[in-house]
Specification:
Length: 552
Amino acid sequence: MTPEPTAGDVALACVSAMLAELRPAGVCVSPGSRSTPLALAAARTPDLPLWPHLDERSSAFFALGLAKASGRPVAVVCTSGTAAAEFYPAVIEAAQARVPLVLLTADRPPRLRGTGANQTIDQVRLYGSYPRLFEEAPLPKPGSGGLWRALGARVRATALGPPAGPVHLNLPFDEPLVPAGAEVDLGPAGPAVATEAASRPVRGQDLSILFGALERERGAIVAGGLPSPAPAVAELARVAAWPLLAEPASGMRAGDAMSVPDALAERFTAEVVVQVGSTPTTRAMLGFVARAGRLIVVDADGFPTDPAGHASHAIAADPEALARAVLARAATRSPAPWLDEWKTADARLRPALDAALDASDEPGEQRAARDLARALPAGATLVVANSAPVRDLCLAMEPRDGLRVLANRGASGIDGFVSTALGVAAAGSPTAALAGDLSLLHDVGGLAWAASHGHDLTLVVVNNDGGGVFDRLATRGLPEHEGLFVMPHGIDLWALATAIGARHALVGSARELPALVGEALGRRGIDLIELRIDREQSLTRLRALTEGLARA
């Protein structure tokens, strides 16, 4: 006699149907009981990568990194209650960085809300306005396969956008949660649902704006963070005879891009700037676009990328598609004195910068950023942390091909940095990360789990004992600076690495870093390469570097 399906059987069948349409690049899951149907469905779906994690916050940031690197939706699963709240920082980053992250939060049945039932909170719209879509799934029941498949397709389409971003699906489950193994009739499959993102068409009025800008000789293109390189944008700069000032995360600091863009940006004022991608990172670049006689911002989704409110036009179009359309009709400008001025200045500044960085063999932040980006092989990915590391990379990285640079610049927090980098590495490319000590310690739980569970990452850590970026800010003059803004922790990173099973190397001299990175990339596991930095010396070096570039 065929057994009757239990609630666990029905829930497993419905969730499996939903996952089949969602087609995530992976599923990250943390321990929990109420999420049993979700965890089992993910584990039993053929060819679906499953990534178990000890805690939900690290799990969500790992999923964020994997989704950022792959460009595909990645699902993260948790049980009911405060476990779901642990996803919140990653949800914010995914929303503001436009990453297709899918939150699958298990829940008690609605009838138990407000009754004092254990591990039950209000999970409806838990993440406020950040998700692109919130839906609460119905309690699973036989014959509802079409509904669940359509739900999976809708979640996938919304996560991919445009604009891409997080989707929250709250899933109530009744007990028993463990399936008995009975067959479940889900009914007819239902019609297919289109799930791929559609690109915005390039509008004629946007082309007219760009053609008008190209009439100006003293123009520039500033490239902020982009999901993928935009070679047509670089070609447009060449045709216009304009300098290209590309941040590392744009994927365009290569070829003819200026090699010291921040230092140059402080010394020139453009008649017109075309800014593509996300908001610039550094004060120098923000100042350059704000000083421009005319600023045109181009963003694929029309996101706000002009904090100073200086833009005369905001164009919602894919920068690469827009540049291709302009190139089809634009004539190449003859070499102009304006571009020659930039090239001459860049040719002076790069050797001056390198000479200053190489003047001492003491480990330093800016040299470490330059040498790490220089040492990574073609096809590698560099994940850079916020605060000082991303700014040091903007200053010091040389133009080069074959290196992808990623950063969590949506909300620019240090939350979950290690787990984000681990998720990026899970996408398959050789991966290194550049972090400060606080970014590392903020996510030490994710690091400890990864070190004992077969993950691969080369992690270069600038350890100045407490957040030296605050020494660059106005709080340095306050009597409460030490201990309230800079927080010395005294944690021995060698002891930490040894305790969790990661390898540790201490950089004794600056020239050692490239070889240590090469060795680490050639083996499996977690390598923590530490540079111990004296904060006072670091600040002195940075001031001397800035003054030296000004003189050059």
